[in-house]
Amino acid sequence: VALKLAVTRSTQARVGLCVALRGPTERVLQNGESITLARGTATVVYLPPAGAPSLPVAFSDPVRGSVTMVASAGPLRLRITPTPSNNRLCG
Questions:
Q1: Model confidence over 14-35: pLDDT tens digits?
Q2: Which residue in 54, 62, 74, 84 is deepest, having the highest Cβ count within 10 Å?
């Protein structure tokens, strides 16, 4: 629930530097910052400063091929884990 409240999906891809997503990657987003999964699928877990991590949330959009998540709060430490495919993470 915390992760779903702390990030919102955007229909605008905010694509910056992209890298191949080959394994779990951690990113810290500040309020208003975003990440885009340019292709593929992944799960996102919120890693709070104290306490247990959130349950994984699916991070994909099979219709558009990319999905952008924007932080509504921050800092948010996220672990992005790809599912087997040709993923690219941007921003």
A1: 667 888 888 899 999 999 898 8
A2: 54
